[in-house]
Amino acid sequence: MGRTNHNVFLSLIRKSAKKRCLFLPHAVRQMSRPDRMISPQEVKTVVMKGEIIEDYPNDPRGHSCLMCGEVSAHRVLHVVCSPKEEYLAIITAYLPSVDEWEDNFKKRKRP
């Protein structure tokens, strides 16, 4: 994704999030797992202050992306979201694993 398109999409995400965040069932299940316990406020922090690390323009649910952000001193979250006209769809949220990610959880490790 080019830098300009990236910034435009990020603006669209944040504009949608200011209207409303809709947590899809998968996101709620993932966030409420006892080993995660991710709050809606933490997800909103990532959406409003984090960065896009992967772009999924051809997602069947609509253009979406993976965002990464630090929500506290030692807690980094990944959030997959898709902006809609009236809300931001939160598809999932999880704690990234050091086994799968490098560069402060912003780049996938090669198999």
Structure characterization notes:
It is globular, with a radius of gyration of 13 Å. The protein has helices at about 5-20, 25-30, 40-50; strands at about 20-25, 50-55, 65-70, 75-85, 90-95, 100, 105-110. It has a single domain, classed as 2-Layer Sandwich (YaeB-like fold). About 30% of the residues lie in helices and about 35% in strands. It is built from three helices and seven strands; from the N terminus they run αβααββββββ.
User: How much strand content do the residues show?
Assistant: 25-35%
Uncertain residue ranges? none
Indicate the mean pLDDT: 93
Helical residue percent band: 25-40%
Number of strand segments: 7
Question: How would you sum up this structure in a few lines?
Answer:
By secondary structure, the chain is an alpha+beta fold.
Secondary structure elements and pairings:
Blueprint: H1 3-19, E1 21-23, H2 25-31, H3 40-49, E2 51-56, E3 64-72, E4 75-83, E5 88-94, E6 101-102, E7 107-108
Parallel strand pairs: 1-5
Antiparallel strand pairs: 2-3, 3-4, 4-5, 6-7
Notable features of this structure?
single chain, 7 strands, alpha+beta, 3 helices, 5-stranded mixed β-sheet, 111 residues, two-stranded antiparallel sheet, YaeB-like fold
